[in-house]
């Protein structure tokens, strides 16, 4: 057996344990009773240590060295490079730190689910302090190993090849034109009237509606399912994708589009190259690319007038007896493109969303680089919210710095992926339109021409290419934010 073949076999073993960890995490967030938290945390910590041990076995270095001297195809070389990158990422962390982070993260996240509801910053801060401390230790270790800044070393986990310097340039550009565009859109919409959902929209009816929309989006139910959680997410593995949403019976708008969003994540997972399953090359390229697929589904497809025609029809079928004017195409279009300055990121409209991301990016960057303390976060959050959106979160931790799940388990460096994803999604749509009649495909109800383009240009590539190579092959250019700005101008200002 060649060294490369040994690495593939070993990678698939690691992947099998990661599969179990992912499903345990899904269960913890959606199904597990509260009383199981302590035992589950200990079990997942033990599993994390075992996976880390497999990823860092001493013979791997020799196998990588030997494999690099073997005659490999172009695809095998790319697979080897990606496996080695993942190995290097894991190898820098001591086992004790991995175990401590797993325990601290599970404890903090589980308590957060109650503490957020109670606006309990004091209780949350006690747990979060340990998560931050351990994350800063990780950032320092990764920085020492790569020569990057501490935050950039963490960013590399989610966005390989991206730096805070490049993000600063992109985000500074967005900050130069977005605030004015938000105000213009709000002013333009001030004279527009719409009918808001009212009454009761039972959860079961909302779920049935969501399942029908997932069928329209060609989700493979033989390899995935829909459930409910506090925070919507997509988890599991490509052969068993788990997506969740959250329901409010006062309205159906958020849960429905949340399902569209998470289905985008899921379709990407289901479309990854199956012959590379179990290897790093068979995984998603980056979180920004992953987010580009969910936002392509939600923003580029889901909120387009022609797709909303389908949503309007399906809403009428599932919410019989409700005010049908709510489901009129023009009314739903207004609801789904309504711009409002508000506190909650996951509920934010497409136009104000980047401000929520930039705020978090600036805080987590300075937190990991040691410029600020975790105790400074509530005040900084309030200051930045007032600056970007004119809103104060003084004393309102629930709708401020405690609203997201990401920081509870140390996912620092993740947030930029959201706005990078929106930019990639706009660029992919602009390129797709050059060869695909997007509106005609959506109107017909057969979206296969759209999904075929995504499968061919993106999903089937896994991580065989760098992010820049992937985007350039698909669109002819690396990331260019002009497509995102043009998309927003056309949708919200008709320019």
Helix segment tally = 20
For the sheet with most strands, the description reads: 3 strands, mixed
Average pLDDT score: 95
Share in helix: 55-70%
Low-pLDDT sequence parts: none
Order of helical and strand elements: HHHHHHHHHEEEHHHHHHHHHHH
Ends apart, CA distance between termini = 61 Å
Helices and strands: which structural class? Answer: mainly alpha
Number of strands: 3
Report the β-strand fraction as a percent range: under 5%
Q: Strand order, biggest sheet?
A: 1-3-2
**Shape, per Cα inertia axes:** globular
Radius of gyration: 22 Å
Overall description:
By secondary structure, the chain is mainly α. It is 63% helix and 3% strand. It has 20 helices and three strands. A three-stranded mixed β-sheet has the order 1-3-2, sandwiched between helices. A hairpin with a 2-residue loop joins β2 and β3. α2 runs antiparallel to α5. The radius of gyration is 22 Å and the shape is globular. The model has no long low-confidence stretch (mean pLDDT 95).
